[in-house]
Design a protein that fits this description.
This protein is an all-alpha fold and about 270 residues long. It has helices at about 5-15, 20-35, 45-55, 60-65, 70-90, 95-105, 110-130, 135-155, 160-165, 175-185, 190-220, 235-245, 250-260.
Length: about 270
Amino acid sequence: MKYEIDTIPVWDALKAQTECPLCLLEKRSRMAAVRYFLGPSVMVPEVRVTVNETGFCPENLRLLAKDPNKLGLALLGHTRLKALRAKIAKKSQPARAAAEKASSGPVAGLSTHGPLKEKLSALAGFLRDEEASCLIEAKVTEDRQRYAFTLVHLWAKDQDFRRTWASGRGTCLHHAPDLLLMAAETLGSHDLGPFAAEYLELLDANLSRVEQDVLAFTQTFDSTGSHAIAGRPEGALDRCLQKLAGTFPEYEDESRARKGPLMGGVSGG
């Protein structure tokens, strides 16, 4: 597969010295997509047709709902709901027919129970698929692939980047598979071994650092003072959650309210 190179955002994310540059890039990609769909594109017919057909998943709908453009979101929601209602009406016909057959007449009972369960299962699968389909997530996934490719490419071609990367904080576990798979797909035999060895060492070293920090955080709650705190407890829980799960919007909102931006000042812009 052919991937585009986008070096400036990747360099900027690495220089930000966060726990995971790919988290920062993903967050910016997601927020840019939110701004796009609630910007002037709301009134573009082609965009509306695509939104009506595909929609947004619950996670990204919550992000859209935080935007001040309530009219734009209402317009998108209205026509998406209208289109989805028509699809559901069509897809639910077999389940409706089976339900009516199972609830009335001499054939009701065990003979109709199995077919009804089958139709309901098919309808539930369709509804789950519709809930999971998401234009924002598709754009974020595309960007994630591009940024993972760019990072691997820069590591192989740019010695300055390679040195900066080696002295950084690695990535979170959520984005680790992106890099491993991209390296396996795109690096030649000369580069793949060194990249894998260096990245896995970098990943382990930084997981160990955060593990020690979050242990130190737990020890600050010991009123007896029986533990010698060896680590950096300030912000350790934030770093632990990010290492485990990548960007963590719910906790990030709470963290910002308590003491300012999470992840060393990462911005959503």
